[in-house]
What we know:
Layout: E1 3-5, E2 12-14, E3 16-19, H1 32-44, E4 49-51, H2 60-69, E5 78-83, E6 85-89, E7 107-111, H3 115-129, E8 136-140, H4 146-162, E9 168-173, H5 177-185, E10 190-194, H6 208-215, E11 218-222, E12 240-241, E13 244-245, H7 248-263, H8 268-274, E14 282-288, H9 292-303, H10 308-316
Amino acid sequence: xxxxxxxxxxxxxxxxxxxxxxxxxxxxxxxxxxxxxxxxxxxxxxxxxxxxxxxxxxxxxxxxxxxxxxxxxxxxxxxxxxxxxxxxxxxxxxxxxxxxxxxxxxxxxxxxxxxxxxxxxxxxxxxxxxxxxxxxxxxxxxxxxxxxxxxxxxxxxxxxxxxxxxxxxxxxxxxxxxxxxxxxxxxxxxxxxxxxxxxxxxxxxxxxxxxxxxxxxxxxxxxxxxxxxxxxxxxxxxxxxxxxxxxxxxxxxxxxxxxxxxxxxxxxxxxxxxxxxxxxxxxxxxxxxxxxxxxxxxxxxxxxxxxxxxxxxxxxxxxxxxxxxxxxxxxxxxxxx
Length: 337
């Protein structure tokens, strides 16, 4: 599996990453054995980049991921987590978390992008994972907190990076404009871009992607299936797009893209995974994987060669933007070597 460095840092990530939100019981319970098996399958598939966050299952994802990786050689993999949501005791628990995770709500999330909040969050994550360090730390969804996130949190992370406590730093969001600001105005090395450079949404070409390319910084792409609409060979009504029911027009467009994929001998999900790599600043695509079967499917999709003519046809038919780069990144004819 191909690997690329995060910006000018020594941190190197595999082209496919393991997103650990779902093993934090996102939307439904994931049995502990399934979570363990998924992480083991990812390792066997050659995945060496694993992403988690305190937000995911109120710490459950971090605990499960740390336990599964603890016996692996620490220098053999890269792990990222996030800051900005401290976990604190919940004085008024209702029994189950109200933010999408099927876990007890004995804890609650508290927004905090202060220097002390960042340091406390990282310390808590290390305790939950049982690991000795984090390789990448992202600011998590700082949309409403730019001033504190850019003015306090990012300088705190930069200090830890400069002390070699952390390898790389950045921010992760569902929008691209503010991510471009983080790359241009702060010490960020990398951004985690959710859903804004996909077969259905190339808005990141207006801001964060050219900024990353200009500055020699990096992008990790997540949400490449746009909440599910691009995850099947044949999209159907009732599937999700950006966490909501997809409109009829979006389903029709996804089907049109799927038909072009089929004409080129590939599938919509395989093209969806490959597409972010059309931009040279994209170093990784990370996917949520709940079971070993999910890992096997995604690893196989990632291995499939995507004919370059597919992107040309999609441009000509107006199904993707005309300014989508023609190549699959530097040195990539279809997949990383």
